[in-house]
Fold this protein.
Amino acid sequence: MTNIDTGHAITTFCIIFFIVASYAIFFSAFSPATNIPVLHALAEDQHYKYFSILIIPVTFYFVIANWVGWQYYSNS
């Protein structure tokens, strides 16, 4: 049961993140301003909104690449 609940939590988090990131980068230019402070700040910013969205996949890439490199090093 724990694995199913964890999988659902991860999937739900990814969907919510995708929706927020899509709004911040794409849809905020075409929709009216919201009263939610975080979404409004991401929509108004022109530089750091991309940084705040891309930091998560880049971090995951770095962690996975580092782990694979460590596996190659330790098994050679």
